[in-house]
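Before the break, one more example. Copy the sequence into your notebook; we will annotate it together after we see the structure.
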Amino acid sequence: MSKGLPDMKNENISIKEIARLAGTSVATVSRVINQNGRFSKETEKRVREVIEKYNYRPNELARSLRVDKAQVVGVIVPDITNEFFSYIARKIEVDLLKQGYMAVICDTNESLEMEKQYIETLKAMRIGGIIYVSGDQKIEPIKDIPAVYVDRKPEFVEEGQGSCFIGCDNYQGGYLAAERLIKAGRKCIAVVLHAKTIATQDKRLNGYRQALHDYGIPYAEELVYKVEHVGMEQGYQITKRMLESANQTDGIFYSSDILAIGALQYFHEENIKIPEEISIIGIDDIPLSARVVPALTTVKQDYLKFGSLAANAIIKMMKGDQEKRTYILSMELIERETV
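Here is what the structure looks like once it is written out:
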């Protein structure tokens, strides 16, 4: 062991330390690792001996960013703390990695300005493509770089117009949710929507309205509630406001599991029995929905399929294939304990 160097047999030592031990420069070590540029066989032999001795493992992300940014994909999400988005992002990341690509995850916190900044930054980095998950529907088209849009369909996206969209049948989701509450005997069914995602929420609302119509239940505008942000606190507060208004609500359709899970806390504090007194249903089927008590009945969006389709589509587009199409996935009722 060289004097002054700690035992790093199982540690990831730096390129600078490898260069010192091999008696060469950092730049030469980098050229050997990445197999580009000029270096002698003798120098390569010395560098590789040090690498093997100290079990060096290069930082793959750093190498990709430095060597070939075309192998990097930006993944823009609105709220990484929401399981629905974090699982989509994770699936994209895993599937990209399997095919030799890296993901850079960008969390916008539901800010249109941050979305715009991330897009400009990613384009300036000259990365290979962008996957845009549940972004603001009024965002401008991403030009001069392959782009895939997931979950929320921007206003400009049309099949064959240079972009790829992956989403669910939101009309079907709204219908399934309302129908399940109706079949449980509920007559006064409220719906809680996200105010920012107009196109998605309109389709869910239309599905809800059609189910009411098909089963002979009048639609009431006063039973439609909207929140500016999707979170547990928003679900708690909107439910509190709803039930303090002295209406006869006996069923609630939340357009996100996170909202419904927040509502469960309010019901618990107020000793309101679910589903005996009020039935509730969500949309998404995030893992947390199966772990809460009572377990949440919901309508499943296949977010893992979102992720795999998005990863495959962006790679095809980055390779020059014309992957400019729309994927609409069916939704599925998941029976648990809240209806």
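Residues 15-58 form a domain with the 434 Repressor (Amino-terminal Domain) fold (CATH 1.10.260.40). DSSP finds twelve helices and twelve strands in the chain. Try to locate both features in your own notes.
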